[in-house]
Every structure is written in C-alpha cells, then in structure tokens.
Amino acid sequence: MPTAAELLRSHSLPVTAQRLAVLRAVSARPHGTADQITETVRGEIGTISRQAVYNVLGIFSEKGLIRRIQPSGSATLYEDRVGDNHHHLVCRTCGETLDVDCATGETPCLNAADEAGYEIDEAEVIYWGTCPRCLKAT
Fold first, then answer.
1. How high is the pLDDT of residue 66?
2. What is the pTM of this model?
3. Residues 6-29 as b or e (16 or more Cβ within 10 Å = b)
4. Which of 26, 38, 47, 65 meets the CB 3.0–4.6 Å disulfide criterion with 60?
5. Residues 58, 13 share a domain
6. Which residue in 13, 99, 103, 100 sits closest to 58, CA to CA?
7. What pLDDT sits at residue 76?
8. What does DSSP assign to residue 102?
9. Alpha helices, DSSP H only, in the chain?
10. In the chain, what is the greatest distance between 2 CA atoms, to the nearest angstrom?
C-alpha cells in the first residue's frame, strides 16, 4: 500500500503539508463535510483557509483520490473509499452516513429502465432511513 506522499505523486500532485493533512483528515473522518475536514486539518497543522481545503478536496475528487457524495438536502460529504461501487445509507434524523456494499442478486432498481444507448459502468444509490440511535430516541 503506497504512502500518502506516494499516492499524491502517482497522481502528479505536488506533496505539500496541506495536501497530506487533508488526505489524512478525509481518512480519519469518513463521510465528513468540508467544514469538518477543515476543522481536523486545522487541529493537525494549524492555520489553513476553508477555501484551501475546498480546493484540495476538489482536486482530490477530480483525480479519484477521494469520493464526493452529495445526498439530497445535505452537505457534500467526502470519503477515501474509492475503487469500488459501494452505496450509502443516510439517517434522515441525524445525518449519520454509512457505507453499504452493492446489492447482489435480483436488483431491478439498479438496471436502467430505458435503453438510451449508454454503457453504464456505475450506479450511485443512497438509501434513506432512521439509524438505531435515533429510533431509540423516539
């Protein structure tokens, strides 16, 4: 497994303290928002602007180092689980987000309903519900 610096170099990105800190923060806070990631980075390296973190997250997303998730009505979330086609489960009450492996077996909702000539290589699915902690609270 490559180090964080090797990972950045393999994607033609200069290795900087800020980029390394953002990469570590995304790993430490799976499904974290940009603000949460900024807070984690500031705790590690001190001063960094929110815009600088947004810029790094954008570059990392474009390069495929991290995955950007945009649940409807929620802030954009970031994770470093890339390279597989997993899905997400989001609690409607507290917003907790979990990874869910792809559905197997009969999955009619994952087959495109209409033949538009596309070669489909990925499905992005978000399951919504209420987590056990929020269910207990009600």
1. 96
2. 0.85
3. ebbeeeebeeeeebbbbbbbbeeb
4. 65
5. yes
6. 13
7. 95
8. P
9. 4-10, 17-28, 34-45, 50-63, 132-137
10. 52
